[in-house]
């Protein structure tokens, strides 16, 4: 990998159905234009775009990092009736939050595929896709884990004033992943992020877990925010004028290296760790010739 100051580790493509708006060919062009030496794809609970991503980015001279954003049930979350199941039905769930997993090697990619499949096979028919923490324990080899942004299990527990639960979840992840665990910080200007960040930094220092800076990219530029907001309304069955609905921000785009280093100028180690993680990931999915 060529010299780099920051690597995007949280990017959702259009394969994050009704969430991401980035087409993979466009992502490849943007990566080249921004001189990104590497980039990770972390679609929501699936690897549908992994092979196309690997092929397009490699052809463009960019290191592809295979990953997934995975919903996890730690078995300790409060029931939340606001979750939407696969076909729009409302279903109570105890999903703690979303983490990101990145494949370091072939074993890690095999485990990504297993976890992505189990996210759809394990839940009941009206539950949204997710895996249990037990599944994560079974299939952790070769994977790096990021604790998630404001939708992550650590952040959500902190925002619920359950610091003990946040600490327990971090301890569980550390017991499984060890030095492959990173506490994730995001700065999209959302109150939830600002409220949780001091506690996250303290947890990282107290437990000797490294910090990593990410931007949860759903689209390319701030100008695409309004179109993406309409997509989110379609996904949730809402109207744009509604106040009580999920929203992102114009900051959820594919920021430049300069923008990210300026955003985290007070925490340069969190930027540096994105490069360290990219260097630890050295595999990419390969296609196979037809056997018939």
Give an overview of the whole structure.
One of its GO terms (biological process) is DNA replication. Its main location: cytoplasm. Pfam families: PHP (PF02811). The protein is an alpha/beta fold and about 290 residues long. The protein has one domain: Alpha-Beta Barrel (TIM Barrel). The protein is about 40% helix and about 15% strand. The chain has helices at about 25-35, 50-60, 105-120, 135-140, 155-160, 165-175, 190-205, 225-235, 255-265, 270-280, and strands spanning about 40-45, 65-75, 95-105, 130, 145, 180-185, 210-215. Strands 1, 2, 3, 4, 5, 6 and 7 form a seven-stranded mixed beta sheet that branches. The radius of gyration is 18 Å and the shape is globular. The relative contact order is 0.16. Mean pLDDT is about 90; it is low at about 85-90.
